[in-house]
Amino acid sequence: MASGITAETSRYCFLDLDFDDHRAKLATAAGFVDATDTRYGFTSQDLRLLGGSEISRVKDLIATDHEWSSKATSIGVETKPPVGGNRVVVELYWEVAPMAAENFATLCANGSIIPGSKDKKPKPVPTGSSGKPLSYRGSTMHRCVPGFVLQGGDFVLANGSGGESIYNGKKFKDERAGLNLKHDQKYILSMGNSGKNANSSQFFFTFDAAPQCDGKHVIFGRAISGFEVLDKAETLGTPGGDPTATIRITDCGVFGPLETPGAGYWYDAPDPDSFSGVSPIFMVLPRVAVLAPSQAVLEKFQKAMGDAAIVTLVSAETYKEEDAQISRLNELLGSFFVDVIVVAPVCKAIIPKLSLPKSWSDAKVTMEEAIIDAKPVEAIACVRTKSWLAKRDWRLEGTS
């Protein structure tokens, strides 16, 4: 099992959900661009940096190229990053359901490095009694019912009838404290099971209140970021539960607040020096909260930042009192829902009255790196160059 999995080290985890194998399709298109750069006159080997009419030409060119047409036909072609990224961050309720939390965190962490550990490289994923790797990585979300649940974790049979816990492969008991919690809102994380005291590796997120699950399924966490990703998943659901497109967990692990990117997507860049021919790069999408005096100004920020960030809007028209604005911004920072706060110039008088949560100060993030005064047209550039994100060894979307 993954060593070092405790409530202190693993309170947060992440899942990267890929829809309709978009990642593989984007990689194929990028490989084509790289291989035919000279032949077709592309200006860059990096698909993400192509622009104008070139990007719309990629699909047709692949389809008519004798070396690549079969690939284009078999998997289709994707040439744009996923809007909203792919990452969902969850908080685990260790104090409520420690066995369920440890089980989930371990299945996320196996095969990766836990933030803060001294490990230089990940340890091999252990094999379970089923003969399958004990990891959510590569498994699918097999059930998706709009207005109800998104369920996954069956890395054994991939159909909801399998699964395996970290506890010698045995099913484990329901934890009463988690069983007593209510499925009363969206984005709750709960255990899937095959009956009473029959928990393994399956889990589900709620899309709405689900009182029919109360007392039957152990709640052990909630999504705290990536709501837009879960909302995208819901659009692929059906009343019968079979998704209309594959929803795959391409990566997962322990989320270290201020150490692990909170949003983004995977881009498999062509790399002739790599054994696989690609080098996976996680393209980070900044999670930005914007405080502005009105909805009209907020819409200007939203339009200016476009798809280059995950934006949360905080309007002074809604939070009329200054104390309410401060409370809302502190809530967003304290829950690690956002990475940066951008304040419209007309509201900048509030900045000296804001303070960073202790966890942020402990991580040596300064006020100037977390709270930025900027106009709409300069907001995303300021986030990319002045925020604490710019100091991490990360690849921010829109930068080279």
Topology overview:
Layout: E1 12-19, H1 22-35, H2 37-40, H3 53-64, H4 69-75, E2 87-92, H5 98-109, E3 143-145, E4 149-152, H6 176-179, E5 188-193, E6 199-206, E7 219-225, H7 227-234, E8 247-254, E9 264-270, E10 278-284, E11 287-292, H8 295-305, E12 310-315, H9 322-334, E13 340-343, H10 358-362, H11 367-370, E14 371-373, H12 379-386, E15 395-396
Parallel strand pairs: 10-15, 11-12, 11-13, 13-14
Antiparallel strand pairs: 1-2, 1-8, 2-7, 3-4, 4-6, 5-6, 5-7, 9-10
Give a description of the structure.
The chain is 26% helix and 21% strand. By secondary structure, the protein is α/β, with parallel strands linked by helices. The protein has three domains: 12-18 and 86-282, Cyclophilin-like (Cyclophilin, Beta Barrel); 22-75, no CATH class; 286-396, Response regulator (Rossmann fold, 3-Layer(aba) Sandwich). The strands form three sheets. The chain has an eight-stranded antiparallel beta sheet, covered by helices on one side. A four-stranded parallel beta sheet has the order 12-11-13-14, with helices on both faces. The protein has a three-stranded mixed beta sheet with strand order 9-10-15. It is globular, with a radius of gyration of 22 Å. The mean pLDDT is 94.
